[in-house]
Structures
1.
Amino acid sequence: MPDALEDLNAYVDASRPEFERRLAELVAIPGVSADPAHAADIARTAEHAAALLRDAGLAARVVPTAGSPVVVGEYLAGPDRPTVTIYNHLDVQPADPAQWRTEPFRLTVDGERYAGRGSTDDKGPALTALQAAQYAVARALPVNIRFVWELEEEIGSPNFEAFVRAEGSRLRTDVVLVSDSIWIAADRPAIDYGLRGLVTFEVTIETGTNDTHSGLTGGAARNPLTELAGIISECVDPVSGRILVPGFADTVAPVTDEELDDFVASGFDVATFMAAHGLTSLRSADTREVLRRVMAEPTFEVHGLTGGYTGPGVKTVVPPRATAKLSARLVPHQDPQAVFALVRDFITARHPDARVELEAALAPYLGPRTGPYAEAASAAVEYAFGRRPAFVREGGSIGAVLTMDQHLRAPVILLGLSLPSHGYHAPNEHYDWTQAAGGIRMFVHYFHHLAARPARA
């Protein structure tokens, strides 16, 4: 065992009280980025996060943006040494106390379980990496370590790209580690190398100015709800989920058998998946097919229909307008703007008075699953958790990953620590010491690997 790792296990065990104290302090600040009423809490989160970085031996600064600030922490071993940047976010989702068994903004420690809003998404993983950096700083490991902690991730990172652009060369790095993803199974580590993109849009049909009596106008009057249902069924088969818009998937690269084998090796179980999400049936019960659909294929989803009467009983009116709230999840090589234009043109060619409006667009991401930085990540995970990780793709989207990939021009590796049971965005969200302890070992091993690389010329 290399000298730098000799006392790591003892350090991890001894650091638990400090980790719990830091996590309790952060959880106690309700930094809900979606609610302007919590703007002061966002500012408090930033200042406290900077104090935590300094307490761990790093320099820290709070960088203002047009919205919420970004917190940057740095340990500089030397300009000729490799640099690792670790990204997390510290803003959180809202929490309704009535839905929680404990107070959401007070950390509740129950054995190894840490319950509280933000405990797993993403304050716990952020502090896990910080505990590892503290170890590296105290031992003067010859690697530059930078933290970038965002406070607007939960609202789509609207100012993060401007921050990265403004920082320019100050953010130069050799690799970026992102700890904001979820393993597929608790007993099998996973590294995400791909993220689906997203296009959200609304389709509106307006055929009048007010509700009309269906007994007086029905049959002659156009019904916008009925027409919207028809539009949706022209775009996607409701039974199979197959997307019917011509050209929609032309640029999609089929997932390989090798990739699918790794998806399956992640420990995914169909029954567990259904139970975790409260699903009573699926479009397929085949493991490989479910994984293909969730990780590597695009989707066309309906999220809501507005229009007409929705109160008790039936009100026999023909509504004057209706709107469908829709999205498409995209996979690598699909361009979100091009996909939206394709869908918009497909709909309006058949329904000229349909109004199709783009809400948001986010490109998919495909990172490395081979090469020195991915292999170093795999080795670090295996060292910390005792099993080789599966390389998988995430079904969701992280806007900051795309920004860093585009502007920092360094490999972005997703080293998540959260488990399916931790309850991302859900009531009773929690983290646990087993994942934190393993995560500290994982990050230290990665730092140690980079420190062993030769100095730059």
2.
Amino acid sequence: MAPRRAVKLSLKKPTCAVCVAGVETLVDIHSDVPKGAKNFDVSGSSKLDIFVAYDSTRVTEPAGKAPWPLDTSVEVIVSADKASKDLNDLKVKVAYFGEEGGEALGRSVLLLTCVDVSLDVDTDRVGKVRRSGRDKKTWRWGPEGYGAILLVNCDKDSDNSMGPDLQNSQLMSLEDLQDMSPMVLSCDGPDEVFHSHRLVLKAPWPDSRRVRVFCALGGDSLSDYKQVLGPQRRSYEVERQPGQRQVPFYVEGLAFPDAEFPGLVSLSVSLMDTGVRTAWGLGGGRGTLPEAPLFTDTVAFRVAPWIMTPNTQPPLELYVCSVVDAHGSNKKFLDDMARLALKASCKLVICPRVDNRNDRWIQDEMEFGYIEAPHKSFPVVFDSPRNRGLRDFPYKKILGPDFGYVTREILYAGPSGLDSFGNLDVSPPVAVGGREYPLGRILVGDCFPK
């Protein structure tokens, strides 16, 4: 639950404030109290929930309609569950009384306008955005877990793209939206509130390098999707239109989890009060206070890891290389593989010499896996850093629509034998020490010691 915001009352004039649906607001009944007041009474609009919190060791709840004692431990808390239709349409009234009761010594009025501000993602992992009662700021593994999942947008959906889609700061294809996780900002309430308040979408600095967010402006053209967050932009003032109740966004991952990145990222939206506020300094000077968020809502994503496909799965495609060495061409081998592929009902892909530069070790060059989220999954080829004759084949020939690409380069050192993917494999599903590994365990190794 969001922290409570305190609103001070005044005996001289009504206080106007904004509250957020579902968020408690503390009414400061002690900020301006008439002389001699010992008790108070509170009432309000039927659409408001009003309750009094108190320390039972110091205060006894009054019977019937008797007023509450004006003890410092007594607090008045209000909340609303729906957005207001009009400005200041919710009212809280506080009356102050002396010790003997009688006529009120003073009255305060609080006029509230409720707005519905909520940032929502597929927290329940059902493939679509819906409001959830779960904690959106946390992420938990497992069948009973929760939290949205983000895909690294590493395929290439448009022929106009020079590389994987994640390299593009602009949307190159509407199909690319299917690879992104949807996110919806609810922003319901009177338009006048949003004239004096800003909605600001933010990403923490480390996370802004690993995600990119597009805002749907309405329409079906590529220009109707605007990049609003990413490596070069950490915040965005939401351009809410009059009467608009929801703003849709699409989020893409830019980096896979690895040793330096556990995969968790977060985004938040804040409702900022833009009204001019002043403060007096110690020297008597007057200055403007910085904007303060009235409310902040945060959602968490976990970037889906690259999952290696076990070799126990039925084959879909078989990749082989056409080469020539001192013994001639390997045509017989290719013919044998063609018959084997036909028998296994899988597609045979022959990499010609122009693409392999006489490098036959295609299993050392690449490994296949996939990424998966509730709304989408697709295969991803992992390109080895061995960088021999086949170094460009995965990028140029396999990367494409709904077929992603990822690689890792070794900084400050050359690749070793363990970086050849013939030495990389994954087991079938296995249990070890009482722990289940439904996706198997990755195995990496070299030849036996001599």
3.
Amino acid sequence: MDRLEQKILDLIDQNREEIIAAGRDIWTHAEMGFKEFRTAGKFADFLKAKGLEVEEGLAVTGVKGYLKGKGAPGTTVALIGEMDALPIPNHPDANPETGASHCCGHNAQVAGVIGSLFALTDPEIRDALDGNVVFFAVPAEEFVDIEFKKGLMEQGKIGYGGGKCELIRIGAMDDIDIAVGHHTDPAEELVLKNNSSNGFVNKVVEFHGRKAHAAGAPHRGLDALNAATLAMHAIDMQRESFRDCDTVRVHGFISRGGEAMNIIADNVTMEHSVRAKNIPAFTDASEKFDRSIRAGAVATGCGATINTMPGYLPTIPAKDTRVVEEALADVAQTKGYRISYHRADMHTTGSTDFGDVSCIMPLLQFGTGGYRGTLHNPDMLPIDEELAYVATAKIFALVAYKLLKNGADAAHALIESYEQVLSKEEYIRYMDSMKKVETIEPKPLPLLD
């Protein structure tokens, strides 16, 4: 660890109370995706207090601050924190105004990026960086609240349902060369997160039937709930056709199932995700999902609308993770933390829109603990704020510094090792190609009376 790296750690330690306060504040004021207006405002206030050039309202709520001003020469590294939370209103710390909870740990990400400001804006450290740093609070990583996002798309306010996907689309990532991301992991202390992950597409399906009295004259109805039930059975029958190596996952729920127990349902809505390890595999699974929906509609005579929304792409591991490993070691050395390593040969079946970022530029990721419970569950609670927020800030700052010191040699090496999967233009073409609406017309038989 060189002198400025030690100074980074010291500056963050000197501001630990403010960093922890930021983490607590965001934790208790959780907001859903594309609705993170309060969080965005708080983040922007920190950037402006440090005199940074700030852009706001990116992809509805995104906030971007430039350490050396927009357009500064050299390699640009983005430190990215996700602002959104999950719809878990029964969490003890749920925001009563939104029903949202940070059971994803995104509050730690934003607190970590804020904390890195205290070190990287120091004049001596800033001048030692041969390049620029972007502090980026981004919206809507959790692909939930799908009907709300669908509504934003129909209004023309967004093109895609994921925050980073939308930021790529509108060009807000165009001036970034390397992205650095963080994940909360309650099972770990410090962790290199260089594993691959599944990609996915989302489905919103509406079955259209005909109402009737469920006891007095059920034969006069077309039961949309039966159509949905049959479709879900058909989806289950597809599972043996999925290859184990593709880690396909198809899961969802019925978000609207009818109006009353004694009324044949005329309108039923299903929301599902179709995931897999690679694009061909989840494209194949998506087609099998659609034909299952058709089967449910045809068998019952109901109509259906299948709305396919592009989700996220699989995460591509980085080929050179030395700077993250060094940063983890530096922080572990000072606090005695345990380091785990999720390397490129490890795969997880969840998804993140960091995957989309990894397909167009180098992505470095790490994780920190400090929570107990299970991600995405109401038992998730911060129990070690030093680890959750302060250690996260230190790693963010150290990674940026290590990439950009000494003529940005490490950044250049990472960029040189990277093999781009899609250009921005190819990415947009692919995402747009996955936007599909299929309508199946109802074909009821004549009533017998």
